[in-house]
Design a protein that fits this description.
This is Phosphate/phosphite/phosphonate ABC transporter substrate-binding protein. The protein is of the alpha/beta class and about 325 residues long. It has 14 helices and 13 strands. It has 2 domains: about 1-150 and about 265-335, 3-Layer(aba) Sandwich (D-Maltodextrin-Binding Protein, domain 2); about 155-260, D-Maltodextrin-Binding Protein, domain 2, CATH 3.40.190. Residues about 1-20 have low confidence and may be disordered.
Length: about 325
C-alpha cells in the first residue's frame, strides 16, 4: 500500500513509515520547490509569505489536491469506535456540503494524527490544544474552527482533581505526591501545569513525582481509583466522562482551576483546493448541533465558530515556549 507524502514528493511505503517513524517521513519529504522568503517556525516543506503563522497554499496549482474521498480524524480518545458514531451526523452533513465521500479515521496518538496529515493521508482533522502547533508547523495544518456557544464563547479550563479523602486541599499539598500528567505535548495535561504551577508554589518533577498516564481519561480514572494522588486535566474531557457515568463526581474535588484555553482546533490540509476548502468551512459553520449525537456529547456547545491560530493560540505558544518546546518531530515523538 502506498500514500502520497507531499506535493511533488512521490510515494513511500506505509510499512517504511511505520518502521522508521515520523522523522523518516520528514526526512523524505522535500522542501517546497519555490523560493520562500519567510516560513517562521514552519517545516521546510511549507511557506508563510503572508505572516499568519500557518502554511500558505502551494503557489503551483498542480500541487493542489481535490480528492474524491475526504479523510476526517478526531483527536485521540479512549474509545475511537464510540466517537465514530458520535461524529456520523456531522460526516453526513460534510458529505452533503462537499459532494465528497468522507471517511472517519480513528487515530491512536497525536503523533500518528500529525504524521497522517503530513503524509497526505488526512485532509480534515481535530487536533487537541497542545498538539495543534505541532500540526501547524510539521504537517501544514490550517486551523479554522472550534466548538463554541451561541454567544461566540469557547474554551476549557485546566482543573486539578483529587479524591475527597486524599488530604490534598491546596496546590502546595501536592508536594511529595504522585501526580498524573497526560503526555509531554498536552497543553492542559502537562505544559500548562509546568508553566503555571511554579507561581502557585509547586514545581512539577521537583516538588512532586510526575507520572504520564497517556490521556485525560486515564488520569481521571487513575485519581478515582487511587493510582494517582491528583491530576491536572481538561475540564471538557472530565465533564463528558461524568455525563457518561465513567466516574462519580461526588468522590472527587477540584483543588485549582485556570482561566480558559482554546479547545480542539479543526483544521484542513494546506494543499486542498481553495474551492473545496470553502465548502468544508461552510459544512462546519452551517452544522446544527442540536438534536444530534455530537450535540449530546459536547454539552454547552451549539456550533462551530471561526478562529485565528495566530491570535487564539498565542497563549498556548507562550506556554510551550516557557517549557522549551520546539516544533520538531523529536519533541512530538516524546508524546
Amino acid at each position: 500500500m502506498t500514500y502520497k507524502v507531499a506535493p511533488g514528493a512521490g510515494y513511500i511505503s506505509y510499512a517504511i513509515a511505520a518502521a522508521f517513524g515520523f522523522a523518516a517521513i520528514l526526512a523524505i519529504a522535500p522542501a517546497q520547490a519555490e523560493e520562500c522568503a519567510d516560513r517562521g517556525d514552519l517545516d521546510q516543506a511549507y511557506c508563510d509569505a503572508d505572516g499568519d503563522l500557518v502554511a500558505d497554499p502551494p503557489s503551483n496549482l498542480d500541487d493542489l489536491v481535490n480528492p474524491d474521498t475526504l479523510v476526517f480524524a478526531y483527536t485521540p480518545v479512549e474509545d475511537p469506535a464510540i466517537y465514530e458514531d458520535i461524529w456520523q451526523p456531522f460526516i453526513d452533513h460534510l458529505e452533503e456540503e462537499t459532494g465528497k465521500d468522507v471517511q472517519f479515521f480513528a487515530v491512536q496518538s497525536n503523533s500518528a494524527e500529525v504524521e497522517a496529515m503530513r503524509s497526505g493521508r488526512l485532509h480534515i482533522a481535530g487536533f487537541s490544544t497542545g498538539p495543534t502547533p505541532f500540526a501547524v508547523n510539521l504537517a501544514g495544518a490550517v486551523p479554522f474552527a472550534l466548538m463554541g456557544g451561541d454567544d461566540g464563547r469557547f474554551g476549557y479550563t485546566l482543573q486539578v482533581y483529587t479524591r475527597n479523602d486524599s488530604g490534598i486541599d491546596s496546590m502546595e499539598d501536592l508536594k511529595g505526591k504522585r501526580i498524573a500528567h497526560t503526555s509531554p505535548t498536552s497543553n492542559s495535561g502537562n505544559q500548562a501545569p509546568r508553566a503555571l504551577f511554579p507561581d502557585l508554589g509547586v514545581v512539577p518533577d521537583e516538588d512532586y513525582e510526575v507520572t504520564y498516564s497517556g490521556s485525560h481519561d486515564q488520569s481521571m480514572l487513575g485519581v478515582v481509583a487511587g493510582d494517582y494522588d491528583a491530576a491536572p486535566v481538561a475540564s471538557e474531557v472530565v465533564d463528558r466522562m461524568a455525563e457518561r457515568g465513567l466516574y462519580d463526581p461526588e468522590e472527587v474535588k477540584i483543588v485549582w482551576e485556570s482561566p480558559a484555553f482554546p479547545t480542539t482546533s479543526y483544521t484542513h490540509a494546506h494543499n486542498l483546493d481553495p474551492e473545496l476548502v470553502e465548502k468544508i468551512k461552510e459544512a462546519f459553520f452551517s452544522f446544527e448541533f442540536e438534536g444530534t449525537a455530537l450535540g449530546e456529547e459536547f454539552s454547552g456547545v451549539s456550533k462551530f465558530i471561526p478562529i485565528s491560530y495566530e491570535d487564539d493560540w498565542a497563549v498556548i505558544r507562550q506556554i510551550q515556549a516557557a517549557n522549551g518546546v520546539s516544533y520538531t518531530p523529536q519533541d512530538l515523538a516524546n508524546e
